[in-house]
Amino acid sequence: MATSRVLSSLPNAVSGAGLRYGLERAVGRLLEQRDRINDLNVFPVPDGDTGTNMHLTLEAALAETAQLPPQASVAAVAQAAAHGSLMGARGNSGVILSQVLRGVSAGCQAAEEMGPEMLAHALEQGSTVAYAAVKRPVEGTILSVVRDAAQAAVRSAAKGQTIAEVLQAAVAEAWDSVERSREQLETLREAGVVDAGGFGLAVILSALSEALGIGQSAWPDALALVSSPSAGEMADGPAGVMAFTAPHSGFGYCTEFSLVGAELQPLEVRARLGSEAEDDSALVVGDPGLLHIHIHTHEPWQVLTRAADLGRIERLKVEDMTSQHQEARRRHGRGGREARLALGVVVVAPGFGFHQLLLGLGAAAVVEGGQGMNPTTADLLRGIDEAQADQIILLPNNPNLVLGAEQAARVSRREVAVVPTRNLPQGVAALLAFDPEASLDVNRQRMQREMAQVRSIEVTTAIKDSSYEKGEIARGDTIALLDGQLVAAGSDLAEVVLAALDRLSDARVEVITLYRGARVQVAEAEKLEQRIRARFPEWEVERHDGGQDLYPYIISAE
Amino acid sequence: MNVRVVTDSTCDLPAAVRQSAGIVTVPLRLHFEDQVFRDRVDMNDREFLSRLVAAKVPPSTSQPPPGDFEAVYRQLFEEGADEIVSVHIAAALSGTVSSATIAAQAVDPNRIHVVDSRTVSLGTGFLVLEAVERAAQGDSAQEIVARLATMPDRVGIICLLDTVRYLLLGGRIGKVRAMLGTALAIKPLIGLGPDGSVVPLGRVRSRASGVRRLAELLAEHRPLERCGVIYVGDPEEGLSLADETRRTYPEMEVIADHCSPVLSTHTGPNTIAYCYLEAQP
Questions:
Q1: Which of B225, B83, B259 is nearest to B154 (CA)?
Q2: How many interface pairs between A and B have CB atoms less than 8 angstroms apart?
Q3: Considering the domain A340-453 in this protein, what is its CATH number?
Q4: Contact A329, A286 (CB under 8 A)
Q5: In terms of DSSP bridges, do strands B112-116 and B224-232 run parallel, antiparallel, or are they unpaired?
Q6: Residue B120, min C-alpha distance to chain A (Å)
Q7: Residues near A464 by Cβ (< 8 Å), separated by ≥ 6?
Q8: Beta strands A290-297 and A283-287: pairing type?
Q9: Which are the contacts of B145, defined by CB distance < 8 A and separation ≥ 6?
Q10: CA dihedral A449, A455, A456, A457 (to 10 degrees)
Q11: How far apart are CA B10 and CA A318, in angstroms?
């Protein structure tokens, strides 16, 4: 279809047919951009399909307009689009889009055609209604993009500009706003991307302007600015730092449905659906009789049971967001960025084995470091950043690093508490006591108490000749420290370990954990494990690969 | 008004308490391969534990057949009961409530009230005790049921397992799944969520720190109305925890008993747990 026709027949207004054609173009453009928008989606991760959601929502809007006669007014087309999108809204972004359309429809009520001022007013209404649907609106999202675009349109219309100029002003401002989102949200800045929903909205506005025969070349340039990150860019954080930020409980279920026949206002329904509906991301929109609901919950069945008491549930969709999250991580390589944690633990540890073990136990980030290779304050700060948590508990696992850790805590922008673990067994014990649901203070106290319950033996090599209570130590001898005190020395590694363990024979020990260093052969460690079992049959003995350098064994007794 | 109280073998009230209060207990079923045992009837706790640890195929459990309930209900009416309150393990965890309900329908639905305790072990036991006490005061079955309905939200269980193995085998892993996949052997602390599913409460490496944590978690639920210690295996640890608890809560009668075999199947040996009833605000 020739795009010029709309303009030539109605130079300064959009007809119902013009709007419908614009919607058609927007659906096509969203389909083209769908995967790119999905990939932009880092915040909030739970809706890993913003592009798909916006596309399908707008498609439902367009489908509804197909019921109208060809000469339908712009108001009728807008109203049909609003209704269709409300019924077909998918995901958070889809629901917000449906609210934008609802506002636009309200803004051109009863009008046969839409002129420049009405367009600006309609966009403004779209922004207002969309803002009202979200409990705590956030800058740098689809909401701020629609608001910025609307304000630009209003300014342009106030100057008496043509509909083409008003729309062009809105499009240009929309893309600028999308670009700004990169800096407005920390998750976006760190991932180096722009907001997915905002991007989708800018695509829609651009497509409308395109359909009206203007601004055709404006938006491919804009697209180049906001290229989505490649796997390579996302994969690696700063050297020596690994991040793992999935919440312990998973993300729960994205639950969406329409509620038909509930003669209640959205706010009343929100209150009746339970605590999940009070969450920031929860949406309850529409009018009494037809509401659209989008809630993230761990217990969708609870929400649905309550909703079923209020009205008829239609178009139900429940998705496991934890699997979406895993998919997103897979697509972005290891470094996929997720929603922030409230509280995370950052641990300093040497060796691949320890890193894996600590991340498996729920550490938010691990910083490489150990005896003879203390991380710098900058390294610690990078680890703190990588953890992506508002509050941090830092475990230095080395007496020489406690001050450095406290220094990093003071310098960091985040609230950081240091639990002064002096060795890895203490660090593991503290991490086990960590409860992501409890407060920073409760955790700090509990972790400090638990770290004090564990006994530790560190086995290393004497770097110079010296002596201790039991005799002389030659340079190169193996020495064992029990809770920091030298208790055994000698030339035979296994004998020194056993002698150190003898010191625990009176203590109340249940579990011995042997962490093998990088330079010890597996067979040798196995043999030592067997000797420990034989000598202390009442103890449980576990052996793991710590991978630490300089220390053939690190041992915890609990 | 003569109201009698029926429960099932998972309520973990000591036998002496059940007998003296005239509580009738219907046994769940234990299946070791093709053999069927009535819980705590055909097999005592000690025999059960040795079989559990030795079993190549883990045992399974099932609800009592409705016929057992029918027989009990008819018997109680013959003995002169006017009404029956039948209190059972959470319907989310066992089909016992449905067996009882089917039987009640067949016998006399107007005079038999089946209650889903929404909890297990002594948690259910606390509801049973409340029912018996209210019945002794002359409350009607309806009044008793209304009272019991206020209790499940105040009941809780804090349980230290020796291993997650038995939860896994029993398929009742719930949200504790998140604790799996760690390289270190850990002992999980678990509880029951409001929907009856298993929820994680913490993890420890040694029993000593686990038992310490149990006491801390219990203290978070003060003030308490009732409390008890349930254990699987050697009574010594359970009884000493009960003693310690009596010292901490001198005003409280602390029940201590071995866990029923049917529940032990899902927790495994060397489990120790607190069951509590929070005081009404």
A1: B225
A2: 47
A3: 3.40.50.510
A4: no
A5: unpaired
A6: 21
A7: A475
A8: antiparallel
A9: B85, B113, B115
A10: 170
A11: 35
Is residue A336 within 8 A of residue A234, CB to CB? The reply is yes
Structure tokens at A553: 């064994």
Q: Does residue A542 contact residue B185 with C-beta atoms inside 8 Å?
A: yes
Closest CA to A434 of A491, A362, A368, A482: A362
Is A450 in Cβ contact with B178 (below 8 Å)?
no
Among B175, B182, B195, whose Cβ lies nearest the Cβ of A361? B182
Nearest 5°: the CA angle A223, A228, A230 is 140
Residue A367: which H helix or E strand, with range?
A: strand A365-368
Q: Which two tokens stand for residue B24?
A: 């009738």
- Contact criterion met (CB below 8 Å) for A554 and A515: yes
A505 vs chain B: nearest CA distance in angstroms?
Answer: 16
Residue A250: Cβ-neighbour burial (10 angstroms; 0-12, 13-18, 19+): middle
Amino acid A334: pLDDT: 37
Which residue ranges make up each domain of chain A?
4-229, 253-327, 340-453, 455-557
DSSP 8-state symbol, A376: P
pLDDT in tens, B91-111: 888 889 988 998 898 899 999
- The length of chain A is 558
- Per-residue model confidence (pLDDT) at position A243: 24
Domain A253-327 grouped into CATH 3.30.70: yes
Residue A10 has pLDDT above 70, yes or no: no
Helix axis angle, B66-78 relative to B96-107, nearest 10°?
Answer: 50
Q: How far apart are CA B105 and CA B251, in angstroms?
A: 42
| Phi, psi dihedral angles at A492 (to 5 degrees) | -100, 115
Specify the DSSP element, H or E, that contains B84: strand B83-88
Q: Which residue of B has its CA nearest to A556?
A: B205
Q: Which residues pair with A314 in a beta bridge?
A: A258
Determine contact, residues A223/A216, Cβ cutoff 8 Å: no
Is A297's Cβ below 8 Å from some Cβ in B? no
Four-way CATH pick for A4-229: 1.10.1060.10, 1.25.40.390, 3.30.70.330, 1.25.40.340: 1.25.40.340
pLDDT number for residue A339: 54
- Using DSSP bridges, classify how beta strands B224-232 and B254-258 pair: parallel, antiparallel or unpaired: parallel
DSSP secondary structure string, A96-133? HHHHHHHHHHHHTTT-SSB-HHHHHHHHHHHHHHHHHH
Write the pLDDT tens digit of every residue in A164-196: 889 989 999 999 998 888 777 776 676 667 788
- Smallest Cβ–Cβ distance between B209 and the set A360, A450, A540 belongs to A450
Q: Is A507 on the interface with B (CB under 8 A)?
A: no
B211 close to B241: Cβ distance less than 8 angstroms: yes
Shortest Cα–Cα distance, A432 to chain B (Å): 6
Is B220 part of the contact surface with chain A (CB cutoff 8 Å)? no
The interface pTM score, or ipTM, of the predicted complex is: 0.77
Q: Show the domains of chain B with their CATH numbers.
A: 3-29+61-151 (3.40.50.10170), 153-278 (3.30.1180.10)
CB-based contact, B206 to chain A, within 8 Å: yes
User: From the CB of residue B62, how many other CB atoms can be counted at a distance below 10 Å?
Assistant: 16
Chain A residues inside the 8 Å CB shell of B184: 357, 361, 428, 432, 513, 542, 544
d(CA A127, CA A150) in angstroms, rounded, equals: 7
Quickly tell me which residue has 């690969």 as its tokens. A545
Is the pTM here over 0.80, yes or no?
no
Q: How many CA atoms lie within 13 A of A535 on its CB side?
A: 18
Measure the CA–CA gap between B187 and B168, rounded to whole angstroms: 14
E strand intervals along A369-483? 389-395, 415-418, 455-461, 466-468, 471-473, 478-482
CATH of A455-557, one of 1.20.120, 3.30.70, 3.40.50, 3.30.1180: 3.30.1180
